């Protein structure tokens, strides 16, 4: 599949009805010097090379970056759903970036992903699953031996305790199978709502919103919510999108956060949804400089999975110790 990192600028947001599924800075748009008030519909003239301001969201008030003005709840929902559609076109191959072959492997990989990268987890789990392929095997592991295998992921002693504990619970309480209910999953050692939603959405097909650091950062940057607590973020975002969109929305937002909308220096000038973004201008707005900030397949470099899906347009990640 061949996708250009930068597509044409997004058009204005449309209706709410859907069938499908943290840096600070100044916005580069030029404001009138004499007065900040102007007749409705009248635009401010900008130099030809300036980044276009965001399109309005149905109220005629919203602008990107420093000039972004308050919008109604309806306008925000329209804009949010438009962003989701734009991300679906930009990342039609969005997927969980942890390698796994069954629910148990996904559960273990997700627990390991705390405070490290998915890439490092993917480089570590082949040896881990070769040694402990089932919950019964992992429940009987010698802690010191497991610690050495998962040491590259950091916090290896605490993670070993969680993995052995959850494996014992799977063996003793769930017949060696990963349960497909959130209420059951969160009773396992080391498993919270985020991990449970990852497993439910990607191993069982149960819709869920996964609020990791990327997701929380972007939805606040886009003014979909002001909440900081992950559970409150999850609850608010769930009211904006139909349930059928929750899992893929999570993947798309995380993909965008890892590839373009970075925490410290977003690649604003290479972002296809810039016209819909209240935070436009917090990062690099020059298109050529912004393209150099793109990561993974968007920047022509390997992704995070050693075994990516067949439709992934980038290169597989190297195994641990390669290169």
Quick synopsis:
39% of the residues lie in helices and 0% in strands. The protein has 12 helices and no strands. Helix 5 crosses helix 6.
Descriptive overview:
This protein has 323 residues and is an all-alpha fold. Helix content is 39%, strand content 0%. The chain has helices spanning 73-90, 103-112, 118-131, 135-139, 143-150, 156-173, 182-185, 193-203, 213-221, 230-238, 246-259, 287-291. Mean pLDDT is 84; it is low at 1-63.
Distance between the termini: 26 Å
Number of strands: 0
Task: Give the percentage of residues in beta strands.
Answer: under 5%
SS-based class: mainly alpha
Characterize the main sheet: none
Mean pLDDT: 84
Order of helices and strands: HHHHHHHHHHHH
- Rg estimate, integer Å: 22 Å
The low-confidence parts are 1-63
- Helix count, DSSP H or I runs of 4 or more residues: 12
Which of globular, elongated, flat, extended, rod-shaped describes the shape?
globular
Helicity, in percent? 25-40%
Task: Please outline the helices and strands.
Layout: H1 73-90, H2 103-112, H3 118-131, H4 135-139, H5 143-150, H6 156-173, H7 182-185, H8 193-203, H9 213-221, H10 230-238, H11 246-259, H12 287-291
Helix pairs in contact: 2-8, 5-6, 9-11
């Amino acid at each position: 599949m061949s996708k250009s990192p930068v597509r044409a600028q997004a058009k204005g947001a449309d209706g709410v009805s859907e069938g499908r599924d943290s840096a600070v800075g100044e916005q580069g748009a030029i404001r009138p010097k004499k007065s900040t008030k102007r007749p409705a519909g009248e635009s401010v003239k900008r130099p030809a090379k300036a980044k276009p301001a965001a399109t309005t969201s149905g109220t005629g008030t919203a602008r990107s970056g420093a000039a972004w003005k308050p919008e109604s709840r309806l306008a925000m929902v329209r804009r949010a759903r438009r962003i989701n559609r734009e991300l679906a076109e930009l990342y039609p191959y969005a997927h969980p970036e942890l390698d796994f072959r069954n629910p148990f492997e996904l559960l273990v990989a997700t627990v390991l992903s705390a405070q490290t990268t998915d890439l490092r987890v993917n480089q570590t789990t082949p040896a881990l699953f070769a040694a402990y392929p089932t919950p019964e095997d992992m429940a009987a592991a010698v802690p010191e031996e497991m610690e050495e295998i998962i040491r590259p992921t950091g916090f290896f002693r605490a993670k070993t305790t969680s993995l052995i504990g959850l494996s014992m619970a799977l063996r003793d309480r769930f017949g060696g199978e990963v349960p497909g209910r959130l209420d059951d999953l969160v009773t396992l050692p080391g498993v919270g709502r985020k991990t449970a939603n990852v497993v439910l959405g990607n191993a069982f097909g149960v819709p869920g919103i996964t609020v990791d650091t990327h997701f929380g950062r972007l939805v606040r940057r886009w003014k979909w919510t002001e909440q900081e607590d992950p559970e409150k973020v999850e609850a608010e975002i769930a009211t904006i999108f139909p349930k059928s969109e929750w899992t893929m929305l999570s993947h798309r937002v995380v993909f965008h956060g890892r590839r373009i909308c970075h925490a410290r220096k977003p690649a604003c000038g290479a972002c296809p949804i810039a016209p819909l973004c209240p935070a436009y201008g917090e990062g690099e707005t020059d298109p050529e400089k912004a393209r150099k900030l793109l990561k993974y397949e968007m920047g022509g470099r390997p992704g995070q999975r050693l075994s990516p899906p067949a439709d992934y347009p980038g290169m597989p990640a190297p195994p641990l110790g390669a290169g």
